[in-house]
Design brief:
By secondary structure, the chain is of the alpha/beta class. It has eight helices and five strands; from the N terminus they run αααβαβαβαβαβα. The protein has a five-stranded parallel beta sheet with strand order 2-1-3-4-5. 45% of the residues are buried. The structure holds ligand PTJ. Ligand PTJ binds next to helix 2 and helix 4.
């Protein structure tokens, strides 16, 4: 990106660049660019800072993840482009399994996301299986991995469309959502909602988990 560091919107433009890179690499769907635009608008209104309420939600999320018997981190095309390294670090710090779960169905993209996570240090990445489905959902997101989301008690869901959070809760799971839109269905239906940008929320969650573990 040929924008100088002094540009007032430098960070925001850098984040956009990651999404564009994600599309070029085949990790992010083109729809992901539109989803990012919506998130960006909400972040602008929030002042592009992690507010007090989000910090409290991150603290609660850290505790829930550490208490979970079978926590799983769900990864889609946008979260892989924005925070692959951090999501791998998060999975190690809990520890939790990583599972690729996409809205816009694509085996090719699933495999590329897995490759990206492995490149960033993941030892194991689960993929969806046609043989295991969660109930109360029609979209591609119903297909999950039997050793991952299927048997998870807590699922961490950073930025996605709203059709799955409600279904996961109805399937008896606790769901932690990161979504910049506090009015989205995901944000309203989750067990814990972190209204923040994934690029800020995940590093803070890792730090909080480390602090809790030290205590
Ligand atoms: O990779 P796939 O096929 O699984 O598709 C992923 C997307 C994100 C394209 C898909 O799940 C989708 O269409 O999502 P939506 O319905 O556009 O919802 C995305 C939500 O994430 C919106 O509520 C946005 O405000 C929010 N959002 C966008 N960027 C961020 C974000 N929340 C946190 N951090 C962000 N950086």
């Amino acid at each position: 990106m040929a924008v100088p560091k002094s540009h007032p919107r430098y960070l925001s433009l850098k984040i956009r660049d990651k999404l564009v890179e994600g599309v070029k690499k085949g990790i992010t769907s083109t729809h992901g660019l539109i989803a990012h635009g919506r998130g960006e608008a909400f972040d602008y209104i929030l002042g592009e800072k992690t507010n007090k309420k989000a910090k409290k939600a991150i603290e609660r999320a850290a505790k829930l993840l550490l208490k979970a018997k079978h926590p799983v981190i769900s990864v889609n095309g946008n979260s892989a482009a924005l925070a692959a390294r951090e999501l791998v670090q998060l999975s190690k710090s809990i520890p939790a399994k990583l599972e690729v779960n996409l809205f816009h169905s694509s085996k090719k993209r699933e495999l590329l996301i897995k490759k990206e996570l492995v490149k960033n240090g993941a030892k194991e990445v689960l993929l969806s299986q046609k043989s295991s489905k969660i109930k109360f959902i029609e979209s591609n997101r119903k297909y999950v991995n039997k050793d991952g989301i299927y048997k998870a008690d807590v699922v961490f869901v950073p930025l996605e469309d709203g059709d799955r959070t409600e279904a996961l809760v109805k399937n008896g799971k606790k769901v932690i959502v990161v979504d910049l839109n506090p009015m989205s269905r995901s944000a309203k239906k989750a067990t814990i909602t972190i209204v923040d940008n994934i690029v800020r929320a995940v590093p803070l969650l890792i730090k909080t988990i480390k602090n809790l573990k030290n205590k």
